[in-house]
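R.M. (postdoc): so does anyone remember the format we settled on? I'll just put the C-alpha cells first.
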C-alpha cells in the first residue's frame, strides 16, 4: 500500500514538474474558460459533440491500455487522441479556436519532449570505452545485452520501461544488462553498425554479446532495419531467449 502511494505521489510530481506534461495539462484546462466565454455563441449541439468526443476518447484509451505494455506508450497515444478530439470539438465552436489549439500543440511539440522512464533497473549506464573493457574482460559475465538508445527518439521513449524491467528479472552472474546513449556518443553507432539516419528510426537497437562477440541483435543487421513491431518485454524476451539463459544459470550451465 505504501509503495502504491509513493508511486502515485511520484507520478503526480512528475506531471507537475515536467514541462511536457505540465504544458499539455494547462492547454487542456484552458478549454474550460474558452468554452464558457463562447457558449452563448455556439450551437446547442456542442455539448452532444463534447460528450461523444469524451466517450470516444475513453474507448480508445481503454483499448490502448489493454494493448500497450508501457505507461509511456499509453500516455503518448492518449495525448494524441485527446488533441485530435479537442481540435475536432473546437471546430464546431469556432475554427479560429481550433487553429489556436493547433498552434499551441505545435509549439509544445517543438519546446518539450516526452520524458523517458528514468530508472535503469539493474542495467548499467555505460560509455563506449567501458563497454569495450567489459566485452574484452574475460572475468565478466558470459553474456551482455546492450541497449543503444537516444532520448530524442519517440520509439526509445515509448519502450524505455521495458529494458529496466527485464534487467531486474533476468540479471545474474551469466547475463548482464547495459545501456549506451547514442546522443552522447554518436560515433559509437557506426562502430556497431547502427544507422542514425531517417530520424533515428533504427533506435532502439539491442545487441547480445557472448564472450565479447555479437551473437544476435534486434532489429537485424542491415542499414534500413527498423523494428516492425512495437518493442515489448515479451518481444525482447523471446527474441534473445532470456528464459533459456535464466534456466542455464539456474542449472549451472
Amino acid at each position: 500500500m505504501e509503495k502504491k502511494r509513493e508511486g502515485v505521489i511520484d507520478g503526480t510530481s512528475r506531471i507537475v514538474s515536467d514541462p511536457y506534461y505540465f504544458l499539455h495539462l494547462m492547454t487542456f484546462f484552458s478549454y474550460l474558460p474558452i468554452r464558457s466565454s463562447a457558449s452563448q455563441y455556439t450551437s446547442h449541439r456542442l455539448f452532444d459533440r463534447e460528450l461523444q468526443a469524451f466517450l470516444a476518447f475513453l474507448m480508445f484509451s481503454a483499448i490502448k491500455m489493454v494493448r500497450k505494455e508501457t505507461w509511456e506508450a499509453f500516455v503518448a497515444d492518449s495525448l494524441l487522441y485527446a488533441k485530435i478530439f479537442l481540435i475536432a470539438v473546437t471546430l464546431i465552436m469556432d475554427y479560429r479556436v481550433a487553429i489556436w489549439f493547433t498552434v499551441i500543440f505545435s509549439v509544445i511539440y517543438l519546446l518539450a519532449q516526452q520524458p523517458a522512464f528514468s530508472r535503469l533497473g539493474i542495467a548499467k549506464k555505460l560509455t563506449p570505452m567501458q563497454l569495450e573493457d567489459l566485452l574484452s574482460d574475460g572475468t565478466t559475465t558470459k553474456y551482455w545485452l546492450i541497449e543503444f538508445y537516444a532520448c530524442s527518439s519517440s520509439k526509445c521513449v515509448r519502450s524505455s520501461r521495458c529494458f529496466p524491467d527485464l534487467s531486474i528479472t533476468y540479471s545474474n552472474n551469466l547475463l548482464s544488462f547495459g545501456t549506451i546513449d547514442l546522443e552522447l556518443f554518436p560515433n559509437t553507432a557506426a562502430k556497431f553498425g547502427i544507422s542514425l539516419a531517417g530520424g533515428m528510426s533504427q533506435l532502439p537497437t539491442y545487441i547480445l554479446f557472448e564472450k565479447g562477440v555479437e551473437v544476435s541483435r534486434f532489429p537485424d543487421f542491415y542499414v534500413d532495419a527498423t523494428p516492425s513491431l512495437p518493442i515489448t518485454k515479451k518481444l525482447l524476451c523471446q527474441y534473445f531467449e532470456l528464459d533459456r539463459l535464466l534456466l542455464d544459470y539456474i542449472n549451472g550451465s
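R.M.: ...and that's the designed sequence above, right after the C-alpha cells. Also worth knowing: Confidence is low (pLDDT under 50) at residues 1-9, 223-227. The two ends are 39 Å apart (CA to CA).
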